[in-house]
Design a protein that fits this description.
Blueprint (H helix, E strand, L loop, with lengths): L1 H17 L4 H11 L1 H4 L33 H10 L18 H14 L2
The protein binds heme C (HEC).
């Protein structure tokens, strides 16, 4: 029994070590789910941005001026919960259907947008 538990733990560790966050996979998710608001390069100039009221525009993700998502853990939380749950605009949607790996990939890509 002990042996089984140990090998399961070892297997889990090797899986999580094997997957370093993949910014390229994150870029594909970003293109599908974020670019229409935040813009292809994160400048906050996606096609939908023009339809949003002043003061609730998509953040410029390249500028490093986030109000809440100031580190990786908080950025992940924002993606899981959406803006409204964290005192930000309801226009920032939750990505509740993404798994932890996908969220990590997105975080890696969003970080790569910063200048
Ligand atoms: C429908 C438009 C829309 C989509 C789609 C969208 N966002 Fe946003 N996002 C916003 C708006 C609007 C804000 C600004 C919220 C505010 O200032 O209250 C925002 C803010 C943010 C912020 C800054 C949060 C902070 O702490 O200031 C980050 C980071 C972010 N979005 C990432 C993403 C990512 C990554 C995706 C794709 C998974 C995404 N957004 C999809 C509209 C959108």
């Amino acid at each position: 029994m002990k042996k089984i538990v140990l090998s399961v733990v070892a297997a889990m560790c090797s899986v999580s070590l094997a997957h370093a966050a993949d910014a390229k996979a994150g870029q594909a998710l970003y293109a599908q789910r974020c670019a229409m608001c935040h813009g292809e390069k994160g400048a906050g100039d996606g096609a939908l941005a023009a339809t949003m009221p002043e003061g609730q525009k998509p953040r410029n993700l390249a500028a490093g001026s986030n109000k809440y998502a100031t580190d990786d853990a908080k950025l992940k939380e924002l993606l899981q919960k959406g803006g409204a749950a964290l005192g930000l605009s309801v226009l920032m949607p939750a990505q509740a259907d993404l798994n932890d790996t996908q969220l990590g990939d997105l975080v890696a890509f969003v970080n790569s947008l910063k200048k």
